[in-house]
Design brief:
elongated, single chain, eight-stranded mixed β-sheet, binds magnesium ion, binds adenosine-5'-triphosphate, alpha/beta
Length: 312
């Protein structure tokens, strides 16, 4: 059975995730190639290893690039590191002001605070880049390729972490505000307040998109091996916790051929895990993808994988 529902007009964002090496990048690119037949599509990689360039055989990087030989498909590789550096540069004044006015820190403490990471902010900044792209609305479909499970979960939990930090910062600000008000009887929001408010809005926008079941769907990619199935099970529970919709799972690298003794052995070894997956993920649609004789690299191979994923 192929993937379903991806062509619904309301569905904007499809996120692929799963254990390392199971085929997330191949499936997200093949899915993008399929969607681009009907929709203006943007594929976004949030993986620091940036493997979409390798898979497409085209240098992508941190800017929008039309994908060669695939009309309607654009790609970008987002760097959390660069996105956060940019944020720190743009908001240095506000951050210093926040630490300076809110606490009893001295100059050295503030310098130290500035060099520390704000929990979740690198990932929030990469998500902010995604959400800005989605809200610019230049594309009809946004496909996100993530790094292995741990990283994807950090990305998805980043709004919660950052929200905690904002609450703590806002509390410090409250004390400062109270002090100013008691001395002068008046307080006007300054740039540090505005920055906090904007961060809060970003967190809310991200959470709203992720938990919107009509607009966003997560597709776990798995292979018929015990460890991958167990990790996918844990991933599904986390996704449920974040209220992120999942309806279908890709079971990749399935051996279909009976041609040699090796193939038959492999097929037999996989069959119990395919059954296990069917039981464990019984509420979901399982999309079987065979193992191809060659690696999935460059457009013709991605088109072959697309034919399996879309059944056309
Ligand atoms: N169905 C398949 N048949 C044959 N080779 C495959 C298949 N799916 C993926 N591959 C190959 O397996 C390797 C890993 O695939 P891919 O890069 O898509 O995995 P990934 O989950 O994105 O990995 P990572 O966790 O490192 O990001 C690649 O060389 C790819 O070409
Ligand atoms: Mg990958």
């Amino acid at each position: 059975m192929p993937l379903t529902g991806l062509e619904s007009q309301k569905l904007k964002m499809i996120i692929f995730g799963g254990k390392g090496g199971v085929g997330k990048t191949s499936c997200s690119l093949a899915c993008s190639v399929g969607l681009a037949e009907k929709f203006k599509t943007l594929v976004i990689s949030t993986d620091p290893a940036h493997s979409i360039s390798d898979s497409l055989c085209q240098e992508i990087g941190f800017r929008l690039q039309p994908v060669h030989k695939v009309p309607n498909l654009t790609a970008i590789e987002i760097s959390a590191d660069k996105a956060f550096k940019q944020f720190k540069q743009e908001h240095e004044r506000e951050l210093i002001k926040l630490f300076d006015t809110s606490t009893t820190f001295d100059a050295e403490d503030i310098q130290q605070m500035m060099s520390l990471s704000i929990p979740g902010i690198d990932e929030v900044m990469s998500f902010k880049t995604i959400i800005d792209l989605v809200e610019e609305n230049n594309y009809e479909k946004y496909v996100v390729d993530t790094a292995p499970t741990g990283h994807a979960l950090r990305l998805l939990s980043s709004p919660v972490l950052l929200d905690e930090w904002i609450k703590m910062a806002a509390k410090m600000r409250w004390k400062y505000r109270y002090m100013i008000e008691s001395f002068s009887g008046d307080y006007n929001d300054d740039e540090a307040d505005v920055m906090l408010l904007n961060l809060k809005k970003t967190v809310k926008r991200i959470a709203a998109l992720l938990s919107n079941s009509e607009q966003c769907e997560f597709i776990p990619v798995c292979i018929p091996e015990d460890m991958a199935i167990m990790e996918t099970d844990r991933l599904l529970k986390e996704l449920q916790h974040f209220q992120i919709t999942t309806r279908q799972i890709i079971l990749n690298n399935v051996m279909e051929s009976d041609e040699s003794g090796f193939c038959r052995q492999r097929k037999a070894a996989q069959s119990k895990y395919i059954e296990k997956a069917a039981v464990l993920f019984k509420k979901m649609q399982v999309v079987i993808v065979p193992v191809f004789p060659e690696e999935i690299k460059d457009i013709p191979a991605l088109v072959k994988l697309k034919e399996v994923l879309f059944g056309r």
